[in-house]
UniProtKB/TrEMBL annotation:
GO biological process: carbohydrate metabolic process
Upper taxonomic lineage: Bacteria, Bacillati, Actinomycetota, Actinomycetes, Mycobacteriales
Region listing for Disordered, in residue ranges: 262-302
Top-rank taxon: Bacteria
Species assigned in the record: Rhodococcus tukisamuensis
Stretches with biased composition (Polar residues): 270-279
Protein name, per record: Ig-like domain (Group 3)
Keywords: Signal
Residues in coiled coil: none
Signal peptide: 1-32
Length: 302
């Protein structure tokens, strides 16, 4: 059989020792990455596929592997090892095998896999008939397993692999990688930035400008501005809030806004613009200040 298509793993080497598969080179062409592949060794044909081919962080994907024979020689599968992208998490109870007995029809049954997280793989064992001959036609074996895409997964296209052991064969047959890819779409979570400012203020007196980012991000900063002029340095977001103590230097209407920088998994956003009316301090003779104690301005943006 062609050595460039498969490689036999010596019997002393566990099928679980297959290497982890990683980011596909040239992942910029992720949309064209194949989500199904078929390989043949001896009279065993195996087709592996993944659905969906694209998934966001936290979503699930299901790999399906179908074993067939291309001649009248029966085969018995003893071990199937699925190699998944690094970090993908097995969904408990999802592994199942559909197979037929020598004289019975097909049935689907759950199987308990042996997990090998160090090698990004899991294995199931049994004795499953693969046959296609007179009185035993179309007895294929199908293995299905579902994984969760990690919440912190990198965006990109990731390959997978496969290894299986046929009874009476020396060692396992391995295709790793096999060319069945899943594309992780790491879209940022949309945020809104709210803003609280005083309705009025006096020149030289410190007031608080507060921005609230929702949903609460992990990190990031907020830049407050007066019109187009930045007010101080960006302020770190802690527990979804950023507060700047600021003293206005001139009278008049000051148009305040806040811009969230964005952070890991959270998109940037900007608040609506609110106005603070600034006047000089009342000197006690009744003609110093303008305006009354205004109410607190509060509004959320996008």
């Amino acid at each position: 059989m062609p050595q460039n298509v498969i490689r036999r793993v010596a019997a002393a080497v566990s099928a679980a020792a297959v290497v982890a598969v990683g980011l596909v080179a040239g992942s910029g062409a992720a949309s064209a990455a194949p989500t199904s592949a078929t390989k043949t060794t001896d009279n065993v044909k195996v087709t592996k596929s993944v659905s969906p081919g694209s998934a966001e962080r936290g979503a699930t994907v299901t790999y399906k592997t179908v074993f067939e024979v291309t001649s009248a020689v029966d085969r018995y599968l003893e071990t199937i090892t699925d190699v998944h992208p690094a970090g993908f998490e097995y969904v408990a109870g999802s592994a199942k095998v559909t197979a037929s007995g020598l004289t019975s029809g097909s049935s689907t049954n759950p199987v308990t896999p042996s997990l090998d997280n160090a090698n990004n793989s899991l294995s199931v064992s049994g004795s499953w008939l693969v046959s296609d001959r007179w009185l035993s036609e179309n007895k294929d074996v199908t293995f299905e397993v579902t994984y969760k895409v990690p919440d912190a997964a990198r965006a990109g296209t990731f390959d997978s692999g496969l290894s299986f052991q046929v009874g009476t064969w020396l060692g396992a047959t391995t295709f790793n990688p096999i060319g069945v890819n899943v594309t992780v779409e790491a879209r940022d979570i949309a945020t809104t930035t709210g803003l609280e400012v005083p309705g009025t203020a006096t020149v030289g007196s410190a007031v608080d400008l507060t921005a609230t980012v929702a949903p609460t991000p992990a990190g990031g900063t907020v830049q407050f501005t007066d019109g187009e002029v930045p007010l101080g340095e960006p302020v770190g977001v802690v527990d979804g809030k950023a507060t700047l103590s600021h003293s206005f230097g001139s009278v008049g209407a000051h148009r305040i806004s806040a811009r969230f920088s964005g952070s890991d998994r959270h998109a940037a956003s900007v608040s609506p613009t609110l106005t603070t009316q600034v006047s000089v301090a009342d000197d006690g003779d009744g003609d110093g200040g303008t305006g009354s104690a205004g109410s607190l301005g509060r509004l959320f943006g996008s």
